[in-house]
């Protein structure tokens, strides 16, 4: 089998460190698929990325054909089949939202252009660096000739968080949970939705009502505990751990790419993908939806009912995505 070239940006960061060894071990694309890794860093991160490359060599991974480290986006994306855009500019003290979007535009616009210029014809891109949805929008807009559908953003971590919280409340194994959905932005406005989820083959809303003593109590738990807990889990991790999620984010990014390229096996997951107007989400926004993949890219699941509360929650998150889009448009980034 030919080697797959995978470019990881921000490779010297904490997510990069938690991700690269698992990719090299074959956990992302399968234990029969050789991989070639390209590590992109800014000059200040090159030395640390080189150190990671030395450790990758020391892993003696049978599937790992090559590791290259560079600070040149064009060299990094040359021939890339998979691009994992992890490196981003974090918010620093005194930085306004517009400043953050502008700083990230300075990263994701050139990277989108470099992907268009140099990546393989079948390239698939996942944006992890925050604000992930809008960074994906910027990269896609700068990648002339690459279909926007190839650019996705990571909400799989939110999805896994929702699965884990639901399983914990019902004292069920996580493996029994299917059909959870994350709608909207990878931010505190997101809507984690269990309306169509099943646990051990039974409808999750029904099980929750049984366990919690009625439909009202189940709705209260969803509104007051489940949704805010999942939507603010990133902040909770930062508060408890002292830095943002890394291993769980790497795990989610790995699963996102695996399912995009190898398929979801008929099941549903969540990913932020470009909207064509599904569920009333304005065309062109990179928004999280329930998705499936047959291995040829994520497709939005279009036939789910959203009740009035669900529509309102999705609407609030989409309003935030529209604001972010308008801000980057005003900056001339898209
Ligand atoms: P980190 O600060 O540990 O590492 C980021 C790395 O990116 C640094 O090494 C930095 O030098 C590098 N970098 C910055 N600009 C770059 C550029 N232009 N090109 C290449 N590399 C560049 O951060 P981290 O913990 O690894 O997190 C990375 C990003 O992922 C952050 O934006 C974080 O908020 C985001 N994140 C997203 C999710 C999600 O679910 N979508 C979850 C967790 C973290
Ligand atoms: C997360 O969801 O854990 C991260 O997006 C949080 C962050 O701000 O990096």
UniProtKB/TrEMBL annotation:
Family label: Belongs to the LDH/MDH superfamily. MDH type 2 family.
GO biological process, one term: malate metabolic process
Keyword Methyltransferase: no
Its biological purpose: Catalyzes the reversible oxidation of malate to oxaloacetate.
Enzyme's top EC category: oxidoreductase
Binding-site residues for substrate, renumbered to this chain: 91, 97, 130, 161
Domain Lactate/malate dehydrogenase N-terminal as annotated: residue spans: 6-144
MF terms in GO: L-malate dehydrogenase (NAD+) activity
Keywords for the protein's UniProt record, in alphabetical order: NAD, Oxidoreductase, Tricarboxylic acid cycle
Keyword Oxidoreductase: yes
Matches recorded under Pfam families: Ldh_1_C, Ldh_1_N
Enzyme Commission code(s) on record: 1.1.1.37
Residues involved in NAD(+) binding: 10-16, 104, 111, 128-130
Protein name from the UniProt record: Malate dehydrogenase
């Amino acid at each position: 089998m030919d080697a797959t070239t995978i470019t990881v940006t921000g490779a010297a960061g904490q997510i990069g460190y938690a991700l690269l060894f698992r990719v090299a071990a074959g956990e992302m694309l399968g234990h029969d698929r050789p991989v070639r890794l390209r590590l992109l860093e800014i000059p200040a991160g090159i030395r640390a990325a080189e150190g990671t490359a030395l450790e990758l060599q020391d892993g003696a991974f049978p599937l790992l054909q090559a590791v290259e480290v560079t600070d040149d986006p064009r060299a990094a994306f040359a021939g890339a089949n998979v691009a994992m855009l992890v490196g981003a500019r974090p918010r620093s003290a005194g930085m306004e939202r517009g400043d953050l979007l502008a700083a990230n535009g300075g990263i994701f616009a050139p990277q989108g252009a470099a992907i268009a210029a140099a990546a393989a014809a079948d390239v698939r891109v996942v944006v992890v660096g925050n604000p992930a949805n809008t960074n994906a929008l910027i990269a896609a807009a700068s990648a002339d000739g690459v279909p926007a559908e190839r650019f996705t953003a990571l909400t799989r971590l939110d999805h896994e968080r929702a699965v884990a919280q639901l399983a914990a409340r019902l004292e069920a194994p996580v493996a029994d949970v299917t059909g959870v959905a994350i709608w909207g932005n990878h931010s505190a406005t997101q809507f984690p939705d269990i309306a169509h989820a099943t646990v051990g083959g039974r409808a999750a809303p029904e099980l929750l009502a049984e366990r919690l003593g009625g439909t009202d109590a189940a709705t209260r738990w969803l509104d007051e505990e489940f949704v805010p807990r999942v939507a603010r889990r990133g902040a909770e991790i930062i508060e408890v751990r002292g830095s943002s999620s890394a291993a769980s984010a790497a795990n989610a990014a790995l699963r996102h790419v695996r399912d995009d390229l190898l398929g979801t096996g008929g099941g549903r997951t969540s990913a932020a993908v470009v909207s064509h107007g599904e569920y009333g989400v304005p065309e062109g926004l990179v928004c999280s939806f329930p998705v499936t993949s047959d291995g040829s890219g994520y497709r939005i699941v279009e036939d789910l009912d959203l009740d009035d509360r669900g529509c309102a929650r999705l609407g609030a998150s989409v309003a935030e995505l529209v604001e972010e889009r308008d801000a980057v448009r005003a900056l001339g980034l898209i």
